[in-house]
């Protein structure tokens, strides 16, 4: 594999390894996971030079943070940890709202620091916009925690262009976390231009379409009841059949390029700009290795045109979340 070119997360943060490891699936939302394999994958990522590790305090209700802490044991200084907070869970695992009040933020952070066995978080970001708390109050509280030394950088997740501007006016925002892939390109119209203007980086999740862009794409019958994709519109009936057909077209292009569809999808996201860091949700070392090999795939303008023609975003069937969840996304609200 060729030496990877570092990605600049923003004008405020240090250069990053081109890919980050998203750890959510090791604890939650994608069905059962092998704990030991998850730990081995975290360590293999470190060995490969990965620096960015993404988690959330509500992933497995704290389990993901403790797992990541164990995986990073003795090597915390090699990792750039970003944590999402604010999503509330019930004892049955259901999502029951968001809370980014100042006192709640401090409480969430206290538990996060304990679980991660660290005295600071590299980047801290609300998982969603709390409709009951002005974004200025949320960012202002995090800014105070930056001054106190508990947090290095401030991020946002799934927020729209207007909200990003308001937040950035309070304190410089280092990165926005958003779903971005061949299947999900809605951020290109309004959000990406704002990030470029303000010098904010992007950590892109869902780069493989939640597993749809894969040689082992799951079918609805193969999903566990506790796998949130069993309720995702893109994995339902005719939508799933249509989306698989699109991936089959992409697979033909990938074969000609001597790569897997996953590698092509990752390389496509990398081609979108030097301040975009794809988050790879690998739960196993074999999937991590496949993703890392995408760094050697250099796409020409002609390749990119063929890839986008094979899987045009406007041909994808179904929204990326169920209707109720879509309504919670500030990023999906369009500026008039």
From TrEMBL:
Keywords: Oxidoreductase. GO terms for cellular component: cytoplasm. InterPro entries: Aldo-Keto_reductase, NAD(P)_OxRdtase_dom_sf, NADP_OxRdtase_dom. The keyword Oxidoreductase applies. Residues 18-310 form the NADP-dependent oxidoreductase domain. It comes from the Bacteria. The keyword Protease does not apply. GO terms for molecular function: oxidoreductase activity. PANTHER family: AFLATOXIN B1 ALDEHYDE REDUCTASE, ALDO-KETO REDUCTASE YAKC [NADP(+)]. This is Aldo/keto reductase. The lineage of its organism: Bacteria, Pseudomonadati, Pseudomonadota, Alphaproteobacteria, Rhodospirillales.
């Amino acid at each position: 594999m060729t030496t990877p070119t570092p990605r600049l997360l923003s004008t405020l943060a240090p250069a990053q390894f081109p890919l980050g490891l998203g750890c959510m699936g090791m604890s939650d939302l994608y069905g059962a996971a092998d704990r030991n394999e998850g730990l081995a994958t975290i360590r293999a990522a470190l060995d490969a030079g990965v620096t960015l590790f993404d988690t959330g305090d509500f992933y497995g209700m704290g389990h993901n943070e403790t797992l990541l802490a164990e995986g990073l044991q003795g090597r915390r200084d090699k990792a750039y940890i970003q944590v999402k907070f604010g999503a509330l869970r019930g004892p049955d695992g259901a999502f029951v709202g968001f809370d980014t009040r100042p006192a709640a933020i401090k409480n969430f952070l206290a538990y996060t620091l304990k679980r991660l066995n660290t005295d600071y978080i590299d980047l801290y970001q609300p998982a969603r916009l709390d409709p009951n708390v002005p974004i200025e109050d949320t960012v202002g509280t995090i800014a105070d925690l930056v001054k106190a030394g508990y947090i290095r950088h401030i991020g946002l997740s799934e927020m729209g262009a207007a909200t990003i501007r308001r937040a950035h006016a309070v304190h410089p925002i280092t990165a926005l976390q958003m779903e971005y892939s061949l299947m999900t390109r809605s951020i290109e119209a309004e959000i990406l231009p704002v990030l470029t203007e303000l010098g904010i980086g992007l950590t892109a999740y869902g780069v493989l379409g939640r597993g749809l862009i894969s040689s082992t794409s799951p079918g609805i019958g193969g999903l566990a009841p506790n796998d949130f994709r069993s309720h995702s519109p893109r994995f339902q009936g005719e939508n799933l059949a249509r989306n698989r057909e699109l991936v089959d077209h992409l697979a033909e292009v990938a074969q000609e390029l001597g790569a897997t569809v996953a590698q092509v999808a990752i390389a496509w996201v990398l081609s979108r700009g030097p301040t975009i860091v794809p988050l790879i949700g690998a739960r196993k070392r074999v999937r991590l290795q496949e993703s890392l090999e995408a760094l050697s795939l250099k796409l020409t303008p002609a390749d990119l045109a063929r890839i986008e023609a094979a899987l045009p975003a406007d041909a994808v069937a179904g929204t990326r979340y169920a209707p109720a969840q879509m309504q919670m996304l500030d990023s999906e609200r369009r500026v008039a």
